[in-house]
């Protein structure tokens, strides 16, 4: 679709409703959309009266109106398809002739396509004629194939003002990409009317497209109740028949075998319930010999017989339906379970009758209809901030929630800031110490996935018997060997020991573990063995222990990034359009060797004055992460060498997740340098994935998994740690040797296909399809978990002189809450006085305010 205002063709079907049609078209002339980009296609649908003459007389002079005449009534489906074929717009908008569009109807409808090129259709909000009550805001589909609209006749009170994905939009006000509409076959003309929009939406979703609700695209609908003139039995006939059509065409083989026979049984029960007759009256055991029992006919309402006729026509239509089914099932890319999440309440009976409901429940139980539609409830817990700006753990938790939401119902919870929303899963904040709030989530969940210190912070999780997945991609205790070394000897030791204890509790409790690489997996298997988890039970379940711990690294988006705005070049003072930009794509932490990088930049700058190093993020979005000593050290070296603002640039704010591609795509190379130590050996540098996503040549230190991969695959250059000359040579090669740079880009393009989020998280997605308790935890009553670890856990012996230092670190590392804050305030007041306490409080408030505001 064009980036400028696309041409929109509004299709209006007229069948003996010329007055309404003319009023509708008059309203279309008032919408806020360029007149030369708006086409109105009126389909005169075989009215058999003077409709064509009246339409031509009234509209013949309007250049943007096209009148198409059908010799017969093609129904809504056929008339709409005819109009779409004759339309010239990139987008076709179907609008009921008894509706009036809001002035922003088209503009807001087109805006609904913006989130993704996979959005194929946009559904408008439809209100009554006065704009007070709801006609359409949310779609639903029953397991037996009958669609419905939620919240009909309720007040439009602001509850439904958020965009969201739907199974289908109402055909009375629906925008569709014309090319996609024609590609998928348009509306099924075999349906004639009713559930045609349901069927289209279902097919689009199966084919990997999305239907999006645009609440600011509003239409007002009259509702004439036109079917009443034809009889309720004819409407019931179409509803019953078309529901069977939808099930037969769109369900997978496995689920069709469950749903279709159950739906047929329900059709029979509904027909009898509507008739008011007793279906046992023909039972020979009730034969009395009364004269009327020999009568070959019995009175039956047409509405009751409609179901039988519908079933018979379904049988007659099977040859055509079978062809349609083969086509749809052959082209589908989504599973039923992925689409079921859009059904809403699939178990609405849609008919309130005691006899019917009794049979309804019996059918559900006998055919086990609920089982295929059951979606596992997964609770994802992180301690990182969730907002426009997110660090690695928060981003990973978000992507995990996205991936799991395809097949599961997901809640993403953080005890940090939660300012990011989506309609794919719930996002909530549970502050530390709020056990009651966490208990509500724990009781809801079937599976609990967590990162970091979640198990340590919440007693609710410690006491839970739910299946738990532990994310070990970040070896926190190894991280603390570097991060906490500035805390003094005792504080350092205590921090590493306490973090190790936190991890040991996780290793003892988890049912399934994720790590980032094969190297990490071997490391974690050793730790699992140390706490007794490498045992006969888990070995019998899987002698490779893949059911216990799997590799699920950080990933990257499968969709290539697009440059949307200027971010560095010509924006950052000192960086021009033609400069060579090296990007450092993340935070600066103590385990990174940024001093050597800055010195290497200085060396390259001696012969290449156009080199620029851009540090993407300095201030961490998580207020709990302090600025580390290496940041000030890096600034100091850059200042001493006269590089700051000329060759080295520090971006003081963290870049928003959805904006980072603009920075990456303006770089010529990506860089990551670190020191060689144990943290490096088992780390997984997620920033390297961003470089791969942006197809950048990579310069990095060797020794970790990505450094080895870069060297092995030729994606750039991996150098020894602290090797300033080697680092300068590598940068010069990737920036100023076009052949070497292109070779690296080609290698990155090849390798990155194996690191998409879909592939990275596949083990977790598979586990959640059939989650289970770890084999040894199923027997833990016989063999108490963690007994070995509890007996052997080391304790640091401290001299009396170090007790005060230890006391501070014990307070700082205790569970967050009011008690901890009071103890910390008391400590600061005693040690630093009122001014010291004031400084600490002001700094904390500043960090939290900036995080809350997305800065």
Question: What would your notes on this structure say?
Answer:
There is one protein chain. The protein has 855 residues and is α/β, with parallel strands linked by helices. It folds into five domains: 8-229, Spore Coat Polysaccharide Biosynthesis Protein SpsA, Chain A (Alpha-Beta Complex), CATH 3.90.550; 232-286 and 303-373, no CATH class; 377-551, Rossmann fold; 580-755, 3-Layer(aba) Sandwich (Rossmann fold); 800-852. Helix content is 43%, strand content 15%. It has 34 helices and 25 strands. The strands form four sheets. Strands 1, 2, 3, 4, 5, 6, 7, 10, 11 and 12 form a ten-stranded mixed sheet that branches. A seven-stranded parallel sheet has the order 15-14-13-16-17-18-19, with helices on both faces. A six-stranded parallel sheet has the order 22-21-20-23-24-25, with helices on both faces. A hairpin with a 5-residue loop joins strand 8 and strand 9 (147-149). The chain is globular. Mean pLDDT is 89; it is low at 781-802.
Summarize it.
It contains 34 helices and 25 strands. With 855 residues, the protein is α/β, with parallel strands linked by helices.
Show the helix and strand layout.
Blueprint: E1 8-14, H1 18-28, E2 38-45, H2 51-59, E3 65-70, H3 75-86, E4 91-95, E5 99-101, H4 105-111, E6 119-128, E7 134-136, E8 139-141, E9 147-149, E10 164-166, E11 173-177, H5 178-183, H6 196-206, E12 210-221, H7 232-250, H8 253-275, H9 302-316, H10 318-331, H11 336-340, H12 354-367, H13 370-373, E13 377-382, H14 392-405, E14 409-414, E15 426-429, H15 435-444, E16 447-450, H16 454-457, H17 459-463, E17 467-471, H18 476-483, H19 489-509, E18 512-515, H20 518-530, H21 536-541, E19 549-551, E20 580-584, H22 594-605, E21 611-615, H23 629-640, E22 648-650, H24 660-664, E23 669-672, H25 678-681, H26 686-693, E24 698-701, H27 705-713, E25 716-719, H28 724-736, H29 738-751, H30 757-760, H31 762-769, H32 787-792, H33 803-812, H34 818-852
Parallel strand pairs: 1-2, 1-4, 2-3, 6-12, 13-14, 13-16, 14-15, 16-17, 17-18, 18-19, 20-21, 20-23, 21-22, 23-24, 24-25
Antiparallel strand pairs: 4-11, 5-12, 6-7, 6-11, 8-9, 10-12
């Amino acid at each position: 679709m064009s980036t400028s205002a696309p041409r929109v063709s509004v299709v209006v079907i007229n069948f003996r409703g010329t007055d309404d049609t003319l009023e509708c078209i008059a309203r279309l002339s008032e919408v806020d959309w360029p007149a030369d980009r708006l086409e109105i296609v009126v389909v005169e649908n075989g009215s058999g009266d003077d409709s064509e003459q009246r339409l031509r007389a009234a509209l013949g002079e309007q250049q943007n109106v096209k009148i198409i005449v059908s010799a017969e009534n093609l129904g809504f489906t056929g008339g709409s398809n005819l109009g779409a074929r004759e339309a010239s717009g990139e987008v076709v908008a179907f609008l009921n002739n008894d509706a009036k569009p809001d002035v922003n109807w088209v503009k807001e409808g087109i805006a609904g396509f913006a989130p993704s090129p996979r959005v194929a259709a946009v559904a408008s909000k439809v209100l009554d004629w006065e704009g007070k009550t709801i006609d359409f805001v949310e779609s639903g589909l029953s397991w037996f194939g009958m669609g419905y609209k939620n919240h009909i006749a309720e007040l439009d009170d602001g509850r439904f003002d958020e965009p969201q994905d739907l199974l289908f939009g109402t055909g009375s006000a629906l925008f569709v990409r014309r090319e996609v509409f024609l590609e998928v076959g348009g509306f099924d003309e075999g349906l004639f009317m009713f559930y045609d929009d349901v069927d289209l939406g279902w097919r689009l979703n199966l084919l990997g497209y999305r239907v999006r609700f645009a609440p600011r695209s509003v239409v007002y609908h009259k509702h004439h109740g036109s079917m009443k003139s034809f009889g309720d039995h004819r409407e019931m006939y179409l509803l019953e028949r078309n529901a069977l059509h939808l099930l037969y065409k769109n369900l997978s083989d496995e689920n069709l075998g469950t749903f279709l026979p159950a739906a047929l049984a329900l059709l029979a029960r509904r027909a009898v319930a509507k008739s008011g007759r007793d279906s046992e009256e023909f039972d020979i055991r009730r034969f009395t010999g009364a004269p009327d029992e020999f009568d070959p006919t019995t009175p039956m309402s047409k509405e009751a017989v409609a179901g039988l006729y519908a079933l018979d026509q379904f049988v007659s239509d099977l040859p055509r339906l079978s062809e349609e089914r083969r086509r749809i099932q052959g082209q589908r890319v989504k599973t039923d379970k992925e689409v079921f999440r859009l059904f809403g309440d699939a178990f609405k009976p849609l008919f309130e009758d005691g006899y019917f409901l009794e049979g309804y429940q019996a059918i559900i139980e006998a055919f086990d209809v609920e089982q295929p539609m059951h979606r596992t409830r997964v609770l994802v817990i992180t301690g990182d901030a969730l907002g426009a700006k997110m660090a690695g753990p928060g981003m990973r938790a978000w992507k995990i929630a996205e991936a799991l939401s395809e097949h599961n119902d997901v809640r993403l919870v953080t005890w940090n800031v939660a300012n990011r929303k989506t309609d794919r899963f719930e996002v909530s904040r549970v502050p530390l110490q709020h056990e009651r709030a966490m208990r509500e989530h724990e009781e809801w969940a079937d599976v609990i996935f967590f990162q970091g210190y979640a198990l340590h912070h919440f007693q609710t999780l410690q006491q839970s018997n739910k299946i738990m997945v532990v994310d070990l991609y970040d070896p926190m205790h190894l991280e603390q060997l570097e991060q906490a070394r500035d805390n003094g000897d005792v504080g350092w030791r205590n921090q590493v020991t306490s973090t190790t204890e936190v991890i040991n509790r996780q290793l003892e409790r988890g049912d399934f573990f994720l790590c980032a690489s094969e190297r990490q997996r071997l490391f974690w298997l050793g730790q699992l063995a140390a706490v007794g988890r490498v045992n006969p039970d888990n070995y019998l379940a899987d002698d490779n222990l893949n059911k216990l711990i799997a590799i699920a690294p950080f990933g990257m988006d499968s969709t290539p990034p697009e440059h949307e705005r200027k971010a560095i070049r010509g924006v950052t003072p000192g960086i021009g359009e033609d400069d060579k930009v090296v990007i450092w794509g993340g935070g600066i932490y103590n385990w990174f060797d940024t001093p050597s990088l800055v010195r290497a930049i200085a060396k390259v700058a001696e012969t290449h004055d156009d080199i620029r190093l851009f540090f993407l993020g300095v201030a961490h979005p998580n207020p709990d992460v302090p600025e580390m000593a290496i940041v000030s050290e890096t600034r100091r070296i850059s200042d001493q060498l006269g590089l700051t603002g000329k060759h080295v640039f520090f971006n003081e704010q963290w870049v928003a997740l959805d904006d980072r591609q603009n920075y990456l795509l303006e770089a010529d190379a990506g860089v990551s340098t670190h020191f060689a130590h144990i943290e490096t050996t088992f780390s997984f540098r997620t920033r390297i994935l961003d470089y791969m996503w942006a197809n950048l040549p990579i310069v990095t230190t060797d020794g970790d998994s990505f450094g080895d991969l870069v060297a092995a695959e030729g994606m750039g250059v991996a150098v020894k740690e602290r090797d300033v000359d080697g680092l300068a040579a590598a940068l010069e090669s990737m920036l100023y040797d076009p052949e070497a740079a292109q070779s690296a880009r080609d290698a990155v393009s090849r390798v990155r296909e194996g690191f998409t989020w879909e592939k990275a998280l596949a083990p977790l997605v598979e586990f959640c399809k059939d989650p289970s308790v770890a084999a040894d935890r199923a027997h833990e009553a016989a063999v108490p978990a963690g007994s070995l670890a509890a007996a052997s856990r080391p304790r640091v012996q401290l001299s009396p002189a170090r007790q005060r230092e230890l006391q501070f670190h014990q307070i700082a590392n205790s569970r967050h809450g009011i008690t901890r804050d009071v103890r910390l305030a008391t400590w600061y007041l005693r040690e630093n006085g009122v001014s010291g306490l004031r400084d600490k409080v002001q700094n904390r408030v500043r960090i939290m305010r900036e995080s809350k505001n997305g800065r």
